[in-house]
Amino acid sequence: MVFEFILKKNGIDPKSDLAIDQSIDFGSTAAAFSGGQGDFTVEFEPHATSLEAKGDGYVVASLGEDSGYVPYTAFCAKKSYIDENPEVIQSFTNALQKGMDYVASHSPEEIAKVIQPQFEETDMETLTTIITRYYEQDTWKGNLIFEEDAFTLLENILEEAGELPQRVPYTDLVTTEFAKKAAGGSEK
Fold it and tell me: Does the predicted TM-score (pTM) go above 0.85?
């Protein structure tokens, strides 16, 4: 959906100007591309960097850079759970913010070393390359605050894709109180 949104934003009609093959299992797209299927592929990491390392392709653009801050990861809880367990929600949010603060204050090499055990199948050089790319693209916000403009962008993308039959007011769906408290002034 993000890819098609970016294409349309740049005057390309994804239905008539090119053919997008969505029949390939998401986990197999890099292998299909390496095998000669398609002229371009949309990949998450580490597949994009792996294609480059093997000489099978090149990263030519970043959907994240071209789309703006799309909240790819958001955490949801029922209102009743939030109301009954605010300390759990705050502790969870504080822990996530601590991770964001670590990323903001450490080098790609330091981050790669810390996260490597979670990515045993990916070597340190590849991890460092990916993290460096994310730094250069300004991928990570300095805080976890789900801003209204990012919410609107997400709704625009979903609506454009025909997946959002009705918009929902930001204030009805999003609470930022925990993220703002966790950020404690580091609102990038």
Answer: no
